[in-house]
Design a protein that fits this description.
Largest sheet: 8 strands, antiparallel, barrel
Shape: globular
Low-confidence stretches: none
CATH topology: Hypothetical Protein Pfu-838710-001
Distance between the termini: 32 Å
Strand order of the largest sheet: 1-5-4-3-2-6-7-8
CATH superfamily: Hypothetical Protein Pfu-838710-001
Strand content: 35-45%
Number of helices: 4
Structural class: alpha+beta
Oligomer: single chain
Helix content: 10-25%
Order of helices and strands: EHEEEEHEEEHEH
Number of strands: 9
Mean pLDDT: 91
Length: 181
């Protein structure tokens, strides 16, 4: 499965929330998430070759989830697999023994909403500001169609395509923290 997502920088998050309320979407309770990102030893910056894994341990509400993401050359999505972790510290030891290093930590407050098949994430990311992510899971043959569906949905929400962000939070935070780009 592929996670197809579009991320948009939003200056007026309250106006966006009002639009979502107009769609009769219900918001979940806000979550505080800490994402610890791991890459293979030897990786410098975010020059991660296509096909290489990026590993994440997300902690929210005293629960940890391990995510394997494989970077593709397709801007519409990445390969993704997840599982719950019972022992956070042991997982970090395993990743270290497998040759991975912690690369960056991203802290954010997230609110989820759902509309039709779309997952809507409203994020306040430390060091970066406010964003909206629209996500949907797809099979290989559905990626293009799902991506175009998200773009059409973004327009109905009054979001500007010019504000689409092509970088992941971890890369943007890494660049700020390390004064690159």
């Amino acid at each position: 499965m592929f996670e197809v997502e579009v991320k948009v920088k939003v200056d007026d998050i309250e106006a966006f929330k009002a639009k979502i309320n107009d769609l009769k979407c219900n918001f979940d309770e806000p979550l505080v998430q800490t994402d610890r990102i791991f890459v293979e030893n030897g990786v410098k910056g975010f020059n991660i070759p296509f096909g290489s894994p990026v590993l994440r341990i997300r902690t929210e509400n005293n629960k940890s989830i391990f995510t394997y993401k494989q970077k593709t050359n397709d801007i519409r999505g990445t390969i993704e697999h997840e599982t719950v972790i019972d022992n956070f510290e042991e997982m970090i030891s395993i990743l270290t023994l497998l040759g991975f290093k912690e690369h960056v930590t991203v802290n954010k407050k997230r609110v989820y909403a759902k509309y039709d098949n779309f997952n809507i994430c409203i994020d306040d990311v430390e060091l970066l500001g406010s964003f909206v992510e629209i996500e949907i899971m797809a099979n290989e043959d559905e990626k293009e169609e799902k991506y175009n569906n998200i773009l059409a949905f973004i327009k109905t929400l009054g979001l500007n395509e010019e504000n689409i962000v092509k970088y992941k939070y971890d890369e943007m935070v890494y660049n700020i923290v390390n004064n690159t780009k």
